[in-house]
Structure formats: C-alpha cells, structure tokens
Amino acid sequence: MTDYPDWVMKFKEKGTYVNYVKGKYYLYAAHSKRVPGTKKINRVCDGYLGRITEEDGLIPPKDKVFGIVLVLEYGLSSTILTVCSNIHKGFKRTFTKNGDFVMAAAILCFIYGQYSEELFRHSYICMRFPGLDFKMPITDAQSSGIERGARMIHHTMSGYFGNDLQDVILHFGHVYKVRVNKKLYLSEESEPVVLLKQKFNIEWEG
User: Fold this and answer.
1) Average pLDDT for 101-117
2) What's the pTM value of the predicted model, to 2 decimals?
3) 70-100: per-residue pLDDT in tens?
4) What is the pLDDT of residue 199?
C-alpha cells in the first residue's frame, strides 16, 4: 500500500481509495468485483469524493448534476433475468416479435402484481429492453403469456432460492442503478444483499 501522510489516511475509509496526481490527493469511492471464472479481483470506481489537503481536509466536489437523476430498480429484476433466462428464451420462440415485451411485463407482474409503462420506466428492464411500447394493444395470447410468465417466474425463483425467496425479493428489490450526468452508479449493497449474493452465487447482470 502506498505510504500516504496521516492527514490523508484519516479520510481513507473502507470502500474508498486515494489517487495521488501531480502533488495532489484525490479520494474515490470503490468496490471490489471478482472476475467471473477466476480468482482475480478488480477494483471498480463508484465515484469521485473530493480532494484532500492538509489545510482544509476533504474538499467535496462541487455539485455538477445536469439533467434528470434517474433511479431504477435493479437488483431483483437483474436476478430474475439471470435465473429465469430460459423463460425469456421460450417467449422469444413463442412470441417472435413481442417476446421481450411479454417477458418484461411478466417480470413487472411478479414484482409489483401488475405492469405499466410507468413501472417499466423505473425498472432496469427498460434499459435491458429499450423501446418497448406499453401503449400498443396486446392479443389474448400475449395477455395469457404474461400471466403464465409471472407464475413461471415465481416457480423458477422458488426452486432456486427456496425458503430465502422472500428475503431475496425484499432486499434485492432495494438495490438500484442511479443515472447521474449520463453515468450509471450502483447503489450501496446492504449486508443481507451481500450474504444472499454469496450464498447463491449471484452476479448482477450488466
């Protein structure tokens, strides 16, 4: 580890790292991520926290948020897309042009008990399946497929997570992707989320 001055190190807490550039110290938030299929661990930057000086301590960055801050439910929908990928493949075969729509609507029904354009726009699946039209009329076959899909998702998730399913729904449902200044950031993962991910070997999609 680089030997930084004490007045710098007092700001270096767990989940952060310091960068020294041209005589100045900069603090960043970060988390570690294992490279799938290997034992290698990469450090992933989660954002800039400010500059550290001996005189003023940590100087936070100026607020430079442009446009709309978009918060998307991420943890649960991402997990469903991974665990229930075969359901999605089946819908793609059955509904050649609308398989993504049927899967997206089924996921929303599983999570919220219904589907709508508003729920879609605040879920990670709007990025996974961009451009879906929730205003288009649907056929009876598609409506039946959505209802059946929600039941299939519940069955598959129950088989995968067993008695932990309700905890997965509760805790994963509070993991978000936040878009600020056209960049996506992952929200903090609570201890139950971390433990459940480890227990079931879950890797976030995307």
Assistant:
1) 97
2) 0.70
3) 999 999 999 999 999 999 999 999 998 999 9
4) 96
